[in-house]
Specification:
227 residues, alpha/beta, D-Maltodextrin-Binding Protein, domain 2, five-stranded mixed β-sheet, three-stranded antiparallel β-sheet
Amino acid sequence: LYAVGATSVILSAANGADIKVLNMYSRSPKAFSMYAKDDSLTSPESLKGKTIAGPAGTNLHELLAAYLATGGMTIQDVNYVNMSIPDAKAGLDGGSVDVALIAGATAYQAQQQGYHMVADGEGLIKAIIAVAVREDFYNENRDVIDRLMADQEKIAAFMRDNQEETLKIVAQELDLDEQAVKDMYACYDFSLDVSDEDRAGFQKTADFMLESGMIEEPLDVNTLFFQ
């Protein structure tokens, strides 16, 4: 799993899946956000009864729950609809949803359209994105794992040493202008190593998911790492 949210990893592990974190992909709280057309939606309380769409079991799901919790509310207080990011954005465009849980380039497009940002993940979630594998695959295919990690290092080095070229490549692939990519790039930390802060972020997310009913049993996130 390349670029999988910590929330999804924890949810999978809590439901008995064989899943381990290999290394990190990114951390980007500000890249995850909630957008609306109605600029009066400025507090958790203002979302009561509203239709809010986004992918379940993800960082965006956690963002919604964390934002509502700041107002003493839960997801039961809104009409939450499980949708992919593109579908949530389409629902917002078409008026069938009040708030869309979106991220990355889709969130940037909403901003450019003049939509109202209800909240982003800053101060609410760690927004950790990881690279994960099955433990049995890791043990049986170390040659594949080693090649993958070596190539990750090459990509990271290329990004560090050739930032302008990297921005051009990404802009072309995402059909965005380079300034848009440059603005979004500033929201991301792409370092690969698993830090103590990352581990603490995973635990914070797991604890929050337990408190909000997203998982049923406590999870020691140290079990998610190889060492």
